[in-house]
Specification:
The structure is a homodimer of 87-residue chains.
Chain A: E1 3-9, H1 15-23, E2 27-30, E3 33-37, H2 40-53, E4 59-65, E5 72-77, H3 80-84
């Protein structure tokens, strides 16, 4: 299944809108970074939805790998994923 | 050559330090996101350096792909890469 990394850069008072939307599908790994597996269909929907949510001067980057096995992840400093193991 | 995506989450008054360091090796693609090709040696050095630069509560994520061909990139909203074509 495709694996995606999503990073958004939006106005401070609008982050909660993006957090709320992305949390439905992906894991929150850093301040403005989400990642996880998505079907192609959900990914296409997400791209359309994210684009429609943006105000001028805001941006979102979506990185897509064919599978999680193509990406290796190194975290330095606080790893929010650690906390999530206990939720 | 390995392809990396680096995302940092640091205190606002310390972003310039990270910008300055990462710009030496990678392309600045969004507020706190860099990407580009790196040799394994430079990647190892970068991981060590980034870790040493962090204050408590700050973090850096490094995603590594074996090559750029394993990642597809979608940008919505303002794409800082567009500007760089004219620099």
């Amino acid at each position: 299944m495709p694996y995606v990394i999503v990073v958004y850069d939006v106005q401070a008072n609008r982050t909660s809108k993006f957090l709320k939307y992305l949390r439905r599908y992906l894991t929150h790994v850093q301040n403005s970074v989400f990642e996880g597996e998505l079907t192609e269909g959900t990914l296409e929907e997400m791209k359309t939805t994210l684009e429609s949510m943006l105000d001028p001067s805001e941006s979102v980057m979506v990185y897509r790998m064919a599978s999680e096995k193509y990406v290796e992840r190194f975290v330095f400093g606080e790893d929010p994923m650690d906390d999530q193991q206990f939720l």
